[in-house]
Write a structure and sequence with these properties.
This protein is α+β, with helices and mostly antiparallel strands. It contains 4 helices and 6 strands. Strands 1, 2, 3, 4, 5 and 6 form a 6-stranded antiparallel beta sheet that branches. A hairpin with a 5-residue loop joins β5 and β6.
Length: about 150
């Protein structure tokens, strides 16, 4: 089993800036896209709950850059569980340029989400991590992957 969930995509011209490389904000969008694909593939019950009162709120997000990506590059976004604390889940992301040689790390990110419930008035309150999400994430934990 892979120690990470992988989402692949091709960089579009819309992802790039006037210089020709990927604009930094797109890496954050890709974290969200990878997380959404993970939920659709691994925990679809959570997506259904998001249509109700469950909210996954981004509490913290970061990214470090080591290289560049350009239009038509294929990128592998690899997400792994970094930790769980109370109602919060922290995920690590690696952005790899794919090509003829070995995959090359071009950026590394981290995101923490908080599991919340919305009351009828719209206020948010912390809630436990849903079981289907916890089980899906456990597949990509460094502890269970070792």
């Amino acid at each position: 089993m892979n120690p990470f969930y992988e989402h692949r995509q091709v960089v579009t011209f819309a992802d790039t800036n006037v210089v020709g490389n990927v604009y930094f904000t797109h890496y954050f969008e890709w974290q969200g896209r990878c997380r959404e694909r993970f939920l659709a593939d691994q925990a679809p019950e959570v997506l259904q709950a998001l249509a109700g009162d469950l909210a996954l709120v981004t509490a913290d997000c970061s990214c470090e850059f080591f290289g560049e990506l350009y239009a038509l590059d294929e990128v592998s976004i690899r997400m792994a569980l970094a930790g769980i604390e109370a109602n919060r889940v922290t995920m690590d992301f690696g952005y790899y340029r794919l090509g003829s040689g070995p995959a090359r790390l071009v950026a590394r990110g981290r995101q923490t989400i908080a599991c919340m419930r919305r009351d009828p008035g719209g206020a948010l309150a912390p809630t436990e991590i849903p079981g289907p999400l916890r089980r899906a994430l456990a597949r990509y934990s460094p502890v269970t992957a070792a």
